[in-house]
Amino acid sequence: MSDLSLQLRDRIANATLTAAVSCVLITTVLAMVAAIFFSPGRSLLPFIVSVCGALLAAFLGIRGNPRRGTACLILSLLATLCLAMTVNGGVMSTGYLLSLPIVVLVATVHGPRWAWVCTIAIAALGIGFLYASSVEWIGPPPELRPLFKWIVVSLITGLTAIFAIIPNNLLRRALRDLENSNDDLKQFAYLAAHDLQEPTRMIMLYMQLIQSRAGQHFDEETRDYFKFVLTNTRRMQGMVRSVLDFSHIGADGKNFAPVDVRTVVDHALENLSEAIREAGATVAVGSLPRIVGSEPQLMRLFQNLVSNAVKFHSDRPPRIVISAERASRGWIFQVADNGIGIPAGSGERLFGLFQRMHHQSQYKGDGIGLAVCKKIVSLHDGRIWFEPNPGGGTAFKFFLPDRKEA
Amino acid sequence: MSAEPVILMVDDNSGDRKLLAIVLGDAGLKARLRTAPDGVVGQEILQAMIDGREPMCRLALIDLNMPKMDGRALLAWMRAQPALQAVPTVILTSSHVARDRDDCLARGATDYMVKPAELDDFIGMVKSLGKYVT
């Protein structure tokens, strides 16, 4: 799946719990309002428990603790169940209970916006109809009221279900279109780069041929022009190669297997040994776990990060620390340096293709290293970011979630 | 009939065909270059060589991605011709893909070379082909 749709799914998933608990909260409060108005004299205790539970669930959900949030959600649902038995002959709360899972479903599948729409619609319809049913002059005859209320409840549930289905399809279709167009774009980038390769190679070779055949007749100015053309053609070749290279990552499918990260890091350091020696860098490696992933991709990830840490060094000799710490449901790896650091506000831009923070003459490179890192981490369903390293420099961190062997 | 050894180059890129002709001398290779822009024409020329209508080539350079008949198909056809078994066949392509390399060598290519992007490297490559011609 494409990076963009992965991001989109990720965002939807993140928004989900917050949205779900917020909706439960709102529904509960509105149910409470309705019950107080329509069933005076009933016990408020289940309501209070229900509201507290929902509040807590919302708070924990917003604070990003899904497990406890879910526990409170269950608690509030239980309280609501008690409520259903005591209020308004059970009908109102049964309706509420019926619509509740649908709200949660909408929140889970579509994210917050549709869940809010859905909740407000349920609440408005519910309160409106219940009010109508309780008022003598517009409501049905008293003997038909229970039936009327059931009709109201079914109507609300039905409408909510429609809400649940329509945007779901819309979103799925939008997501599919997005994936298709993103795939087309990637295919285009690959083909464009592939087809540019030959013409740029020809420009290079024939320019050099002209230079070798007629170079001695050139004046100083013409020699300069030639140098300019050759430098830029080489640069273009580098970019074309980078795009092809970038397109190839992960193109052979997910060959995930158990990987000893320490071995991977050792290989990466071995490949960089010359650069490390030249820069006089020291590299300290902490204890690293075994995880499931793609060995060549992970090696490239560490190699790129360490290479950057060696390259962007300050006046001090580079000191690089590679470590890992256990997080809930995964590992956070870190490559920290004491280098020149990254200006605040560089943000996500740093991970884009061909993004350079410095001039080519200052630090060599084609601006693809971190884009490759991000792609590899995304292929592992992880996340990469950077933080200023205490004491100067930068710490690049990435989270890789636990996964079962592929 | 010329006494010079013949090199056959099957490549749809006219720039490469021309450049090879130009730098043969720079690389110190005395050979006559025979070229074909695609696999079909290449096959016709090779057939003419088998039939004795033209002198047999000493070396065949084959590009991989070509219109009409690609390098893989031409290589497979060549390897099925008893008269061409002794002709060294070098795949000369812009494909860096390791799988292509393994595939071609497994199908009987003598060598697999990636087309250089620098003139010095190109001349160096042509020099290295000298061992097949002399």
Structural class of chain A: alpha+beta
Shape annotation of chain B: globular
The main pleated sheet of chain B reads as: 5 strands, parallel
Largest inter-chain interface?
Answer: A-B, 13 and 13 residues
Enumerate how many helices of chain A there are, as a single number: 11
Binned strand content of chain B: 15-25%
Low-confidence segments of chain A, ≥5 residues, pLDDT <50? none
Helix amount of chain B: 40-55%
* Rg from alpha-carbon coordinates of chain A: 31 Å
Oligomeric state of the chains in view: heterodimer
Number of strands of chain A: 7
**Total number of helical segments of chain B?**
5
Write up what this structure looks like:
The complex is a heterodimer of chains A (406) and B (134). In chain A, 65% of the residues lie in helices and 10% in strands. With 406 residues, chain A is of the alpha+beta class. In chain A, the strands form 2 sheets. Chain A has a 5-stranded mixed sheet. Chain A has a two-stranded antiparallel ribbon with strand order 1-3. In chain A, a hairpin with a 2-residue loop joins strand 4 and strand 5 (330-336). In chain A, helix 1 (3-38) runs parallel beside helix 3 and helix 1 packs antiparallel against helix 4. The mean pLDDT of chain A is 72. Chain B is of the alpha/beta class. Helix content of chain B is 43%, strand content 17%. Chain B is built from 5 helices and 5 strands; from the N terminus they run E-H-E-H-E-H-E-H-E-H. Chain B has helices spanning 14-26, 39-50, 71-79, 98-106, 119-133; strands at 6-10, 32-36, 59-62, 89-93, 111-114. Chain B has a 5-stranded parallel sheet, with helices on both faces. In chain B, helix 1 (14-26) crosses helix 5 (119-133) and helix 2 packs parallel to helix 3 (71-79). The mean pLDDT of chain B is 87. Chain A binds chain B through residues 197-198, 200-202, 204-206, 208-209, 212, 237, 244, and chain B through 13, 15-16, 19, 22, 94, 96, 115, 117-120, 122.
